[in-house]
Amino acid sequence: MVTASSLPVPVGGLTRPAATESRLLRADLGRLDEVSASLAATAAEYDRTGSFPHAPLQLVHEAGLLTAGVDAKYGGSGVSFTDVTKILLALGRGDPSTALIAGMTIVPHLLQTRSPWPEELYARVLEESALRPTLLNHARAEPEMGSSTRGGLPATTARRTANGWSIRGRKRFVTGAEGLSYFLVWAATDEASPRVGNFVVPARTPGIEIVPTWHQLGMRATGSHEVRFTDVEIPAEYVHELEAPGAAPVAGRLPGTIMLLLSSALYLGVARAAQQYVHTFAHERVPAALGRSLATTDRVRQAAGEIETLLAGAEQLIFGVADRVDRGVPVGGVDALAAKVVVVRHVTTAVQTGLRLLGNPGLAQANPLERHFRDIQSVGVHAPQEDAALAVIGAAALAKEAPGA
């Protein structure tokens, strides 16, 4: 077991003049291919060891990508939803574990103008983000209730104290747990009429314990461990989106399903990396009996066409939603759910198709396709999972044709 307050803060040797310490690094989208290639060079080793990717995240930070979504009014680059989608795709193509940790940090910054944190707290986060990778993530899933998308109140509680709140509970699958700077803990208040919200808990606060439970098939370096909060004290104002259960959406707040769809871009990156390896293998493999590369055969060309069709369709869906958000065109949660279901099916099928095409070589641990296949299995696990999504989509479709509708 690890106590969060005992964890080192990785600064990666970053030094900056005192006069510029509070300035955020500008997002350099021109470096996406370079950053992606650098992440890809070490992805296999992090997958093998499962160690936390401090160095890759430092690289993402130095390219200004961790804070790419910070709005210009806060001194950030203020990139669009479309640009964030491009970033996640590129990082996912390089190392999806690093991409997932980074994405969990990028998204809260992107949403700050729509669903703001307390101003003084956010200013503190930005000051820290200018100096070093400052990682954020929600802690929502629990051992008893599972995914929060399936309903119910969290067992984790926030108790009023003289100085603020005291947090107690357990959370599972907290991506990047050991490297986070702030946990956004979803909890219910102990009030007579409980409210639920995200309580912002600095990672070095006493009472936080990280339990190393993450031993998965894929995405091995995300460090998505269990975290226990035992009477963790935070100031009264360290609360985000505190409201009654089932409250109507706040005007201007985007449905969470849209963000989940955009985060699927990193898995599209995984599928694109798998596709690239399949193409390379097909060009380089020249069977003696054939006398020419596999890439010249009808079978391989047909499979390559199927893979490209699947991935192009997924890409159009993801970027289509991002573009609509950027243009201010309303995107319903049901629409985003439907798009996510299709994207998950497409990227999973594309990688499986490539694996079947290569046969045994594709399953060899020496080839990256084996790792891409394991990593892509995680895309369908992210909430809301397909069965829950289809139930919501189906209910909405049936309601349109209901008698008297």
Q: What can be said about this structure in brief?
A:
The chain is α+β, with helices and mostly antiparallel strands and 405 residues long. 44% of the residues lie in helices and 14% in strands.
Describe the structure.
The chain is an alpha+beta fold. 44% of the residues lie in helices and 14% in strands. It is built from 12 helices and 9 strands. Strands 1, 2, 3, 4, 5, 6, 7, 8 and 9 form a 9-stranded mixed sheet that branches. Strand 3 (157-160) and strand 4 (164-174) form a beta hairpin.
**Main β-sheet, in a few words?**
9 strands, mixed
Number of separate helices: 12
The CATH class of the largest domain, by name, is: Mainly Beta
Helix fraction bin: 40-55%
Radius of gyration: 22 Å
Core attributes:
405 residues, alpha+beta, Butyryl-CoA Dehydrogenase, subunit A, domain 2, Butyryl-CoA Dehydrogenase, subunit A, domain 3, 9-stranded mixed β-sheet
Helices, strands, pairings?
Blueprint: E1 2-3, H1 32-49, H2 54-62, H3 81-94, H4 96-110, H5 119-131, E2 136-139, E3 157-160, E4 164-174, E5 182-189, E6 196-202, E7 208-211, E8 225-235, E9 239-243, H6 256-263, H7 265-284, H8 298-326, H9 333-358, H10 360-363, H11 368-376, H12 386-400
